[in-house]
Amino acid sequence: MQAVIDYLKQNEARFIQELCDYVRFPSVSAQPQHTADMKACAGWLVEHCKRIGLTAKLCPTAGHPIVLAKTPPVKSKTRRPHFLVYGHYDVQPPEPFNLWKTPPFEPRIAGRSLFARGASDNKGQNLAHLKAVEAYLKTSTELPCDLTFVIEGEEEVGSKSLASFLKAHRAELRCDAVVVSDTGMPSKKHPALTYALRGIAAFEIILHGPSRDLHSGIFGGSVDNPAMALAQLLAKLRDKNGRVAIPGFYDDVEKLSAYERKQFARLPYKESDYRKFLGVEKLFGEQGFTPLEQRSARPTLEINGLTSGYQGEGSKTIVPSWARVKITLRLVPDQSPAKVIKQVRQQLEKLCPPTVRMEIKSGHGAEPYIVSPTSVQAQAALRALKAAFGHEPVLMREGGSIPIVNDFKKILGADTLLLGLALPDDNAHSPNEKFDLDCFTKGQLMSAHLWQELSEVKP
Amino acid sequence: MQAVIDYLKQNEARFIQELCDYVRFPSVSAQPQHTADMKACAGWLVEHCKRIGLTAKLCPTAGHPIVLAKTPPVKSKTRRPHFLVYGHYDVQPPEPFNLWKTPPFEPRIAGRSLFARGASDNKGQNLAHLKAVEAYLKTSTELPCDLTFVIEGEEEVGSKSLASFLKAHRAELRCDAVVVSDTGMPSKKHPALTYALRGIAAFEIILHGPSRDLHSGIFGGSVDNPAMALAQLLAKLRDKNGRVAIPGFYDDVEKLSAYERKQFARLPYKESDYRKFLGVEKLFGEQGFTPLEQRSARPTLEINGLTSGYQGEGSKTIVPSWARVKITLRLVPDQSPAKVIKQVRQQLEKLCPPTVRMEIKSGHGAEPYIVSPTSVQAQAALRALKAAFGHEPVLMREGGSIPIVNDFKKILGADTLLLGLALPDDNAHSPNEKFDLDCFTKGQLMSAHLWQELSEVKP
Question: Does the predicted TM-score (pTM) go above 0.80?
């Protein structure tokens, strides 16, 4: 291992130059004008993988190609562990350009920050894993496991081709765990394993009232106002303790263990800073839980949009014909989107007054995700983080959803270890995105340690 | 009087031709391209008034000119009653043209209907009054009162110049009552005096939450959602009995008298027809009142518009930064917009949770209006209606506001008698507007009788 560590140290400057080369490609998956740039970036990546000693190829999909790379086969009498490393080479659109201090695809280094679109999300993070495996291969240090890299080009547009790719390559991709560095850590002193994600269930309610907008002077008072009916319906979906008021909603929610709550308590958090960051005078959430727990380990019902009647300047005196709300529920293990949507429908049908007609449209759903934080793989990952960063790592839940981890579980039968290298101020998806070069080098080190630690445990 | 009645009968065909001439002017006050048409229409009206024996002139304003016409001065030892007849020569925009069966400014007669923009609102109605006075003047029948006609050109755009015109001509316009035919009657068998109007108070509430839209996955559950806070706030403004839940709101509401409720009961109404007309399965309104009472004699709080967060297709997973509602309250005698807005503010401030910041914007207000239905003038008007239409007239309240009646009261000190000649299916403000020729001829007769009846009573 010392040779690997030394190699990483000695080649640090070149690695940074390679990351600069990588981020120069404007690989914006959402914008058709960048289709050729996408292809060029993927091609560069394949060549890069080959140069460091991997076998690599470009796999065409219905959308942008996927880069598939593997460590060279090793003859072994016993079954060798196999891990899959997932990343993506596509980036968010850089607009608005005028908010960037320097052009998004011209990397700029200032102190320990490398500024460029995609530096943190996700090129810097997936390149860190490639540099770790390069160190093994170039120093002829024996890797205790086989590694497969799947680096896709459609993460920022919904990973539309990934599931069918996983299905088509199910046999060769079957693995002991998937490793993804595409999440964050609270600070460089708090390297993190994200062990749970919230799921989601989206739906829309439209309450239909009169067949057209009515003059509120002439008719108002004698017919229900669908906007008021909607307000009264919505008001009943959250109680004063911040709980979702849908019967059965909490039935499948797994209780936070004492161990988990202890981990939450270790996360850096200061309420006044958090309030300031959000721009609110006072926080609000489910009673009995801390804000960090509320936003990641507890389910919630959020109104995403309201639409009814007149929205322009001044006033228009109408009883609107209809009112609409867009809602997403964030779910936690072991809630299921389908079951929750059924519970919501039942409650809405019970609450809806006979003076309006209700239409419910179900939208997308995603299961919540959890890997036991006390599993041997999770604990192995924590050891790798500690060895690389020199600080006791934290265990985190994230409040958002990453649908692909459910695909890995369903299609490949593997758990995913989320070992994110992004810092909270990396400006992912925003102008002036940057990646911290310490996270880059320590990420390489973490990856180098990870294969040792993971290969020693039996999941 | 018989000479007057005979004259009206004998000249019916010519009057209809004159109404056709009048509606041919595309006098659309809202559209700058019709400024010359407005002037031409007003000029035609002045000439017409002169031709029938009135003194008449065009009074320029900051906007469109006002036509001012008077009956010739009569020498009299005693003070003669003086009544003001108000009307307007401007019309609503005719768009969308494609929904008109024949062009809006090319009058078409079918059966007893004259189709044209402005036929019912308001040219046919104000011309009926002019034809009645023509009959008096051309038959040398003595008018028992002096009459002044004020026919403005900005009614459809808010009567912006009328108040200052009334103030500038306060002395010569001082009168015993104002007569306005610009409302409706339920049917030709139910000629109507509208004796009360609702007032209005408009306001807007904006609840401010986080300083920007937040990712609902990452932050949802730990910060209040302003759209939910708004729904819960609004839900508390109307109770389950359909009453406005603002302390003190009903304090100044005058109780409906037994006489008034009896009048309401005489109005033609069938619930199934009304439901069908509105397009709803079930009506809703304040308990203890009929729908006709609810929509005209009871105050109400109506949401006119809701806006928050994402309104496009599909979903956007955010906690919106703010949520807005537009509200109008319809007020009844003796509620005052200023007092009600104060009550609303107090209640909102009491209800608003500390987790959002509330901004309230007050909009326009208008006082409710009432003329005692048992006053001598109201009863005189009812006699004129009965004489002309041959049916027992009904007393009505209207749910909308007509702000100018408050100006007549404040500036001229006069009550307004609303003797509308429009039928419910006249399509005012809509394509294929029409005026019923029976309403035209009976309206002339009503006007002829009205001056006799009104001049005999002392207000």
Answer: yes
